[in-house]
Amino acid sequence: MRAALLALFAVFAIGARDPVLVPEVSQHEVQVRQGFKGTELLLFGAILDPAGRVGGQDYDIVVVLQGPSEPIRLREKERFGGIWINSDSTDFRSAPSFFAVASTRPIKDIVDEKTAAIYEFGTKYIQLSPSGVIDPVRQRRFAEGLVDLRSREGLYKENIGGVTVSGKVLYQARIDLPSNVVTGTYTAETFAIANGRVIASAQTDVDVKKVGFERFIASTAQHDSLAYGLIAVVLSVGMGWGAGRFYSMI
Amino acid sequence: MDVYLPIANLSVNGLVIVALGLVTGMLSGLFGIGGGFLTTPLLIFYGVPPTVAAASATTQVTGASVSGLFAHSKRNGVDYRMGSVMVVGGGIGAGIGSLLFRFFRSIGQIDVVISALYVVLLGSIGAMMAREAWQALRNSGKGTAAPRRRRHHPLVSALPWRWRFYRSGLYISPLAPLILGMVVGILSMLMGIGGGFLLIPAMLYVLGMSANVVVGTSLYNVVFTTILATMMHSLTTHAVDMVLVALLLIGSVTGAQMGTQFAGRAKPEVLRLVLAAVVLLIAFKMLFGLGVRPDELFTVSAL
């Protein structure tokens, strides 16, 4: 609501000719609790035409949802003396833990390659910030390896035609978050594109966090590891012993 | 039934995990081993991250072995003196193991090391067990007794400084069980196993302990070694998933009881042949994984 007012205000204040995007997400907070199987996020919103007309211009919409970035080391296996072992490796300073892009039409029909690369419209354009000595061929091999790996885990995906626009005003896209997503702040960026040019963009956040028992377990394991270990031992000894008693009675 | 594992960060089918616990529990009831050598690889095949799988499996083995330990201790089947020496060795081993774990992880070869260890250990022990069980089966058919074997390995008698272990019927150097415990402790940390399948043959054929205390003493050692390994994992890798452990335990404590019931009725040679087959199967699966081009050439680790 506030975003909508701000957007309206922006239109009047600046009097810009470009349209304004008002994005919204079905959930601003995804709670990871027992039984969490992943969730479906609905990213929707409206395109406000500066002249106030409904259905003025044709737009393409691209939605990019990114999970928190983390520095990673990527290792590549090679055959060595008959067995496959890790040999070469490279570091990426910011690999998003989740990356999904949805668009109304194939990206190459909407914008040129350079624009697509700037706005990260597609898994091959993810900015990974490689570090160390950069050999482009090797770097590309590693980047493709990472994208392939995470695509198979359901963490990186492209959904062409995943955005629908109705009445040239409302758009919506559905993005699946699998159960193996990491917690943190996810950013959803929406871009409106016309004639190969990004004419409006807007951003909104989604918080993914563990709650209740799951949160307690995860934080205890990390911060009170001694107590956590002792509880695990007691749980395991207790269950083993209890079961022994139980079955010897019946 | 979907269950979310908070440390592994993924959702699994709880019934599959309980069933997996049931199978390994039956093994532990039948053979007096914890079954960690089966749990860890199967969890990894199922998609649980290797470190979480190894850490949680050690915790589960504790639970699976506890009830067996009580049963054996009731009928004087535990040599506490021998077991305690091994546990001390196991503690030292777990410490060394966690350093090795960290070292192999830092050079990025931990998964290769784990697979290679599985192939070598399970392969050799499985082959040994299969041969022995097969011979015993053939002999029992002919009605001839198995050849009498020597008491213990000559290397064990060569060690200095001897102690008496009454229940095992041995007068040997405590260094032998100490070293054995240490080796098992290291492997326990690296492979997520209790080490029963290693200890039992080693106690029988290397130390030459009397057979009626072997399983009980092995369980005693396994319980304490896995407790140490659980603590070590909690403090260093933070990878013990309590929800995963609880699910595995529900299955394995039930399975252990079923196994114990069944063990009284089946022929021991046949049982050992079955165990040998299971062990060899896992070894082959691991070897296959090492030798064949993997589906995924790339692995990610956090910096």
- What oligomeric state is this? heterodimer
The biggest beta sheet of chain A is recorded as:
6 strands, mixed
What proportion strand of chain A? Answer: 35-45%
Instruction: Determine the N-to-C terminus distance of chain B.
Output: 34 Å
Amount of helix of chain A: 25-40%
Largest sheet of chain B: 2 strands, antiparallel
Radius of gyration of chain B: 19 Å
Largest interface: A-B, 62 and 57 residues
Strand order of the largest sheet of chain B: 1-2
**Rounded mean pLDDT score of chain A:** 85
Distance between the termini of chain A: 63 Å
Write structural notes for this entry.
The complex is a heterodimer of chains A (250) and B (303). Chain A contains six helices and twelve strands. Chain A has helices spanning 2-14, 107-110, 113-119, 136-152, 212-223, 225-249, and strands at residues 20-25, 29-32, 39-48, 60-66, 69-80, 83-96, 99-103, 156-160, 163-166, 170-177, 184-194, 197-210. In chain A, the strands form three sheets. A six-stranded mixed β-sheet of chain A has the order 2-12-11-4-7-8. In chain A, β9 and β10 (170-177) form a beta hairpin. The mean pLDDT of chain A is 85. Chain B has 303 residues and is mainly α. Chain B has one domain (2-291). Chain B contains eleven helices and five strands; from the N terminus they run ββααααααββαααααβ. Chain B has helices at 14-31, 36-46, 50-74, 80-106, 110-142, 154-158, 175-191, 196-207, 211-236, 242-263, 268-291; strands spanning 2-5, 10-13, 163-165, 170-172, 298-302. In chain B, α4 (80-106) runs parallel beside α9 (211-236), α7 runs antiparallel to α8 (196-207) and α7 crosses α9. Chain B is globular. The model of chain B is unreliable at 144-148 (pLDDT under 50). At the A-B interface, β5, β6, α4, α5 and α6 of A face β1, α3, α5, α9 and α10 of B. β5 of chain A pairs antiparallel with β5 of chain B, so a sheet runs across the interface.
